[in-house]
Amino acid sequence: MSDTRQRKRKKPQPKINHTMRGKLVGLFAVVILALVCLLGRITYINATSGTKYKKRVLLQAQQSYQSSVLPAKRGNIYDCNGNLLATSQKVYTVILDCKEVNDEKHDYVDATVKALVDVLGIDEDDIRKKLTDPATSSSQYQILKKQITMDQKKAFEEYASPGEDSGLSEKELEERANVQGVWFEEDYLRIYPFDELACDTIGFTLSRETADAGLEGYYNSTLMGTDGRQYGYINDESDAEQTIMEPVTGESIETSLDVGAQQIVEKYVNGFKASMGAKNIGVIVMRPSTGEIIAMDGGDRYDLNNPRDMSQVYSQEEIDKMSDEETVTALNAMWGNFCVTDAFEVGSVVKPIVMAGALEKGKISATDTFNCDGGETFGANGDTYIKCAVWPDAHGTETLREVIANSCNDGMMQIAAKMGTEAFLKAQSLFNFGSRTGIDLPNEGAGVIHTTETMGETELACSAFGQGYTLTMIQEINAMCSVINGGYYYQPHLVTKIKDSSGGIVKTISPTLMKQTISEKISADIRSYMAASVDHGTSRTSKVQGYSSGGKTGTAEKLPRGNGKYLVSFIGFAPVDDPALVIYVVVDEPNVEDQASSTYAQYIAQGILSELLPYLNVVPDESEDGTVPETELWEGFKGHLKSTSISDSELDSDGNLVDADGNLIDWDGNRIDENGYLLDANGDHILDEEGNYKMSTNLVSASGSTDADSSGDAVSNPDAPAPLEDDEAETTEDNDEETDGITNEEAGLE
After folding, report:
1. Which of 268, 332, 627, 732 could form a disulfide with 434 if both were Cys (CB 3.0 to 4.6 A apart)?
2. At what angle do helices 351-360 and 409-430 cross, to 10 degrees?
3. What does pTM read for this prediction?
4. Long-range contacts of 459-462 (CB under 8 A, 24+ apart)
């Protein structure tokens, strides 16, 4: 036993038997199988839903998705012949993703900057500043340049992604591939093909959706359309989707404006400005049978494609001296439409309207006569004497026809006295004086007229010849249209059709007959009286050969009385029996010492009508062979209207035409010396076949002097009452106010 106890114990050796080994192999197989299943599942998920989860991760990384506006194209503006007056051209804004360009893993900076500079002409310093400035270096949206063309966009895209057959080297292709982080936003640029033509009437857009002036402003909601939108979202199945709401193009408008007629109007206004000039000139041409505006020129000219450029109105020195407030004031004045917004004392052009109202009210008859002895006395003590234009002479006994033809103040004052205050004011209401006409242009003025409380004896007398109250040009011409068209008062308007983007007519805007003001018999009588004014009265300077016409002159003394400042005007129509158009010309303070002559307005009207009537295919009713005889126009127009395409030229202080370098030129643009002899580009005289100096055949007449018609127009005396201030009397605003004239029902109208 002792031997056994003393024997050393051996450590037991673990043994894996067959059973245990089998279990271990089974466990290992299970683990391997699980790993295979997991890998299979991952592969399946990646194959079937990998994009979904990737998008989810990306969107979560961005924290929000970006949405973008898809701009709507603004509708077009057309004239009556389909000429484009305003349209929109697709342009692009260049956007720089600074974060992408600055990616440290890639070398995008130099290649991208080079592309932007070389292809799009963007300033390199500006680009690199955005890429390095801490405030913008991580931005994903930096505007580099606006209003690039589609061609420029395509050129950049072709540069950054050249085709396989580009012929570029491998190094160049590698460089182009590094142009990154540049993208383009769509927008539209408003384009005006005729630049400054009819600028006051057409108006312009301050931005794609904002417009306040002209037709652009009045019809802004019609023209602007509806923007679309592009945005992304995660749907119920966790898919990131993109939704696009397409923009809706704005509707287009067709107007009654005629580009050819407008060009004729502006041609003669420009000619008058070049020869004489004035503080302001306004012209309206209307169709009396519909109230449609054919042409309208309302004051200062400016380029609709660059409406903030004041260089046509002010010198650069004047512009530089303007404060911000003065600049805004100057711009608003330049953008205003004198024909619609400004109210003033119109003078004697209102006399046919006053007479028509007196006839309609039964206060006078067509057979009445009036004795002009040089003026009328007013006041209890006879201390107020209002003169006729011919005082100290007199017109003597006059018929109604002669009162109009002679523009007799005395006769008109007697007519007003027969009417009395109440009937006179009702007659003014009959023609919507003191009320806005409702023309489809913004900022229409209403003028200020007397009331029964403010109209005394002298106020009534002066009102008869257009002093003491104010009207706008559109009020005056629209009232006159009803006087000569048979008595039908239409709402003046410019837009005749509204069209969709494909050219289909959405709406036709028919003439709106508002009332009948006078009878057709009275209308015919007034036309004959105004025809007498053209044949042998104060309006004879307006005569266009081959056409019968009627007219009335106006000379209004401006406040303060006695300052020598006048507004002169002419309103006329042709032909007499069936008027195709009415024209109203206002010249505010012509640049002459003696302003009180309506012939200045007649010069413009005559020039316009001499071209406009044939252009509109109006038959020359006084021509035996149907041709239009030549009308001898005002001498101030000679040399000014034969060429209208001279650029970079102006009149010097002596009235001579000079080019941009100060060289004397004629109206064909040829260089001349001080005597009118032609010079070549080197300043040497051009010789004819006989070796003599060659004379220009189209020299400018620099003189602003005229042989004004000596026939007197009715001018108020210095004691004529001033128009009421806006806070002294309320104007009538209801265009449909009932009157004592012929009703629509009586005239057979609805």
Report:
1. 732
2. 70
3. 0.78
4. 459/721, 460/416, 460/417, 460/420, 460/421, 460/424, 461/376, 461/378, 461/386, 461/413, 461/416, 461/417, 462/386, 462/716, 462/720, 462/721
131 lies in some domain: yes
Enumerate the H helices of 276-366 as residue ranges: 316-321, 324-335, 338-341, 351-360
Domain enclosing residue 104, as ranges: 84-192
What is the number of domains present in the chain? 1
Distance CA 140, CA 126 (A): 16
Distance from C-alpha of 458 to C-alpha of 87, rounded to nearest angstrom: 53
Q: How far apart are CA 195 and CA 137, in angstroms?
A: 41
Please write down the long-range contacts of 672-680, taking CB distance under 8 Å and 24 or more positions apart.
672/696, 672/699
Give the model confidence (pLDDT) of 203-261 as tens digits: 998 876 778 899 999 999 999 888 788 777 655 555 566 778 888 889 999 999 999 99
Q: Contact at 8 Å (CB) between 230 and 467? A: no
The answer to the question of residue 148 being in a domain is yes
- Residue carrying structure tokens 């009627």: 550
Looking at this protein, which amino acid is placed at residue 738?
E
The DSSP output letter for 575 is S
Q: Find, among 196, 197, 193, 190, the residue nearest to 303 by Cα.
A: 196
Cβ partners under 8 Å of residue 511, min gap 6: 289, 290, 291, 292, 490, 491, 493
pLDDT tens string 271-298 = 999 999 999 999 999 999 999 999 999 8
| Ramachandran category for residue 662: left, alpha or beta (phi over 0 → left; psi -120 to 50 → alpha) | left
Q: What is the pLDDT of residues 34-45, one digit of tens each?
A: 776 676 666 665
Examine residue 651 and state whether it is found in any structural domain, yes or no. no
10: confidence class by pLDDT, cuts 50, 70, 90: low
In a domain, 18, yes or no: no
pLDDT tens column, 673-708: 877 788 877 777 887 777 777 777 666 443 334 444
* CATH number of the CATH domain containing 154: 3.90.1310.10
